UniProtKB/TrEMBL annotation:
Pathway: Pyrimidine metabolism; dUMP biosynthesis; dUMP from dCTP (dUTP route): step 2/2
Class of enzymatic activity (EC top level): hydrolase
Pfam families: dUTPase
Biological processes per GO annotation: dUMP biosynthetic process; dUTP catabolic process
Described purpose of this protein according to its UniProt entry: This enzyme is involved in nucleotide metabolism: it produces dUMP, the immediate precursor of thymidine nucleotides and it decreases the intracellular concentration of dUTP so that uracil cannot be incorporated into DNA.
Protein name listed in UniProt: Deoxyuridine 5'-triphosphate nucleotidohydrolase
GO molecular function, one term: magnesium ion binding
Reaction(s) the record says it catalyses: dUTP + H2O = dUMP + diphosphate + H(+)
Organism: Roseovarius tolerans
Gene name of this polypeptide: dut
InterPro entries noted in UniProt: dUTPase, dUTPase-like, dUTPase-like_sf, dUTPase_trimeric
Domain dUTPase-like: from-to ranges: 18-149
Length: 151
């Protein structure tokens, strides 16, 4: 099985534990807000914030970590990740942060220890890019953006 190594940030609350899969078949492991000294982070409607997880990580080469919203928070409170899926590169060694946005109508309180997002480990392919004079023809051609109908 693939290993993702984590390092706790100085001052982080280690009692919160590492990200964890909540069920056997879960694709995403839940990430927790980790800011023991700040109490709560208040997200006003329309506002966004970079929420610390207290962690740094080492994603194996050939993989990435995607940060995705939790559907429960999205449906109930309109809490989204504006850059979803957030991309964590395999060569990144800085603090793991979650950009959270309140697209709901009410202020939302993010508490220390709250499960704020989920991380999915996924394979990535780095391609070689080349410029050519013409592209292979297809039945679709340039059709897109609803060319087959929108309903
Ligand atoms: O939600 C996120 C998105 C990114 N990152 C970290 C890990 C990632 O590897 C790094 C860079 O992210 P990205 O490539 O999305 O940022 P950028 O705006 O393109 O900045 P850069 O020029 O540093 O790549 O920031 C996070 O901690 N959380």
């Amino acid at each position: 099985m693939l290993t993702v190594a984590f390092q706790w940030e100085e001052g982080a609350d280690r009692a919160l534990g590492l990200p964890a899969y909540e069920t056997d078949g879960a694709a995403g492991a839940d990430l927790r807000a980790n800011f023991p000294d700040r109490g709560v982070v208040m997200l006003e409607p329309g506002a966004r914030a970079l929420v610390p997880t207290g962690l740094r990580l080492m994603v194996p080469a050939g993989y990435e970590v995607q940060l995705r919203p939790r559907s429960g928070l999205a449906l109930k409170y309109g809490i989204t990740l504006p850059n979803s899926p957030g991309t964590i590169d395999s060569d990144y060694r800085g603090p793991l942060g979650v950009i959270m946005m309140n697209a709901g109508e009410e202020p939302f309180e993010i508490e220390h220890g709250a499960r704020i997002a989920q991380m999915v480990v996924a394979p990535v392919v780095q391609a070689r890019f080349e410029a050519v004079e013409s592209l292979e023809a297809t039945a679709r051609g340039a059709g897109g953006f609803g060319s087959t109908g929108v309903r």
